[in-house]
Specification:
By secondary structure, the protein is α+β, with helices and mostly antiparallel strands. Helices cover about 40% and strands about 10% of the residues. Helix 5 runs antiparallel to helix 8 and helix 8 runs antiparallel to helix 9.
């Protein structure tokens, strides 16, 4: 399993850009404490070859290790550890039990490939925060830094036919997830509050934004985005399903060009199908716009909105609706994450504080164009 920076990582701006701090933890101490804990779950076992990936994220952290034991449940493992509260976290809460339960539900009730979950530890005394351990999937992941839309990586260098297969199979992951998980078994993902699932989902994002700007400059652009959502609310949000949440190809391990493992379930929720579709389409556009802005051609024919919509409709019989709303909502959600990541960099002295908070949103022009109805 490989973890990647959140899409708001501004190190994707240009080659050689200084990467933001992603952890405040000591990897060697973490490894020693993991070995001590592992012995309580599998007597005689040791963690061997533990490494923190170079592209470790700024949200939950990942530790890769092998289990040294005569009969391990899995030899190659990955550990997902809740963010260090002292590290100016990207999100206000990290519910590792919720992620663990979501992965187990998807594994049990769908044919969507997810890593095998092994252990959940909710006591923070062992590693400083709750965590869970799962199998480590073999394969390759479209890179975020530098983004796969830039030249010099395996996906950019693939043929059109190979990318078409990857696109089709990735959209099929969403179709299968949405169609196979019984909603009654996913009730633990329901957001407290009143109204439908989409209303509750947006209210959670409003609360997240309020948390991000607490004591910091507010973003007029993000606030205009929330007002636009209210003015363009779907007349019928559609069926509620289990939404992956971070539905992008950078969170899939591929065996060749076929999905081998679907990762990162910390944003899973209940909501309409279009939440995941809008996120998949928009996150590609984010990287495509970065490439074009740097003078590269990128991958303009890949993960186009019309193709994603038509593929999903053929697979499910559900033509996506209100996609202008959902792609803008995805861009708005991304903007909130980017604002928090930028404030995190300012907190650690890695970047100066600008006079205009909206200048911290790398896709500001995209969101402005969406609000004006001239992006698509």
């Amino acid at each position: 399993m490989t973890d990647h920076p959140l899409p708001g990582d501004r190190s994707a701006e240009a080659p050689g850009a200084r990467r933001p701090r992603t952890t405040t933890r000591d990897p060697e101490l973490l490894t020693r404490r993991l070995t001590a804990w592992l012995g309580t779950r599998l007597p005689g076992a040791r963690a061997r070859g533990a490494t923190v990936p170079d592209a470790n994220g700024m949200s939950s952290e990942t530790l890769l290790f092998d289990i040294d034991h005569p009969d391990p449940p899995e030899a190659a493992c990955a550990l997902r550890l809740a963010a260090d509260p002292a590290a100016y976290c990207v999100f206000p809460r990290y519910d590792m039990a919720r992620q663990y339960r979501t992965m187990r539900l998807v594994a049990a009730r769908t044919d969507v490939p997810v890593p095998r979950t092994l252990w959940l530890e909710e006591d923070p005394a062992h590693l400083g925060a709750p965590f869970f351990v799962m199998s480590r999937a073999a394969g390759r992941v479209p890179p975020d830094v530098m983004p796969y839309t830039y030249e010099g990586n395996w996906l950019h260098g693939a043929t059109d036919t190979e990318r078409d297969r990857l696109e089709a199979d990735s959209v099929a992951v969403l179709a299968r997830l949405h169609g196979q998980v019984p909603l009654a078994e996913a009730g633990f993902l329901a957001t407290p509050g009143t109204g439908g699932a989409l209303i509750r989902h947006v209210e959670v994002q409003r609360a997240y934004y309020s948390w991000v700007v607490d004591g910091r400059p507010r973003s007029p652009l993000i606030e205009r985005g929330f007002a636009w959502l209210a003015d363009h609310w779907p007349s019928d949000p559609g069926e509620t399903v289990l939404s992956w949440g971070d539905a992008r190809i950078g969170n899939i391990v591929y065996d060749g060009f076929a999905p081998a493992a679907v990762l990162d379930w910390e944003m899973a929720a209940l909501g309409p199908r279009e939440l995941d579709l809008g996120w998949m389409v928009y996150l590609h556009r984010f990287f495509q716009d970065l490439a074009e802005g740097s003078g590269q051609r990128g991958l303009p024919g890949f993960l186009r909105r019309d193709r994603v919509e038509s593929r999903y409709a053929r697979l499910t019989g559900h033509p996506p609706r209100d996609m202008e709303f959902h792609t803008l909502y995805a861009a708005l959600r991304h903007a909130i994450v980017m604002l928090r990541v930028a404030y995190r960099r300012i907190h650690f002295g890695e970047a100066p504080a600008p006079a205009d908070a909206d200048a911290l949103i790398l896709h500001r022009d995209t969101l402005e164009a969406m609000l004006a109805g001239r992006y698509w």
